[in-house]
Amino acid sequence: MTFPLSSAGVPLQDLIFGASIYLPPVFKAVLLGFPLWLLVHRLVRDWLYAGEIWHPTLMDLSLFVLSVCLGMALLTAW
Questions:
Q1: Which of 34, 61, 63, 71 could form a disulfide with 29 if both were Cys (CB 3.0 to 4.6 A apart)?
Q2: Would you say 75 and 32 are in contact if contact means Cβ atoms under 8 Å apart?
């Protein structure tokens, strides 16, 4: 008995192979936004954890989301 999806020329096989090679755009945006977040986090870390911010973890997460959005905007504009 042969597996029906393993035959050559089946579109599903090409789709699976293509998905394993090409990265989804959201993952690319995270890869672009993460170094930006690292830079911004390092610059505002002292101010962030000095007690002036009500919830520093939430602010840090917001900075990360904004960095990922900027990475996605860069991908879209490029």
A1: 71
A2: yes
Q: 8-23 burial, b if ≥16 CB within 10 A, otherwise e?
A: eeeeeeeeeeeeeeee
What is the rounded CA–CA span in Å between residue 11 and residue 18? 11
Q: How far apart are CA 40 and CA 49, in angstroms?
A: 14
Residue keyed to tokens 């755009």: 25
pLDDT tens profile 13-62: 555 555 555 667 788 889 999 999 999 999 999 998 898 888 999 999 99
pTM: 0.67
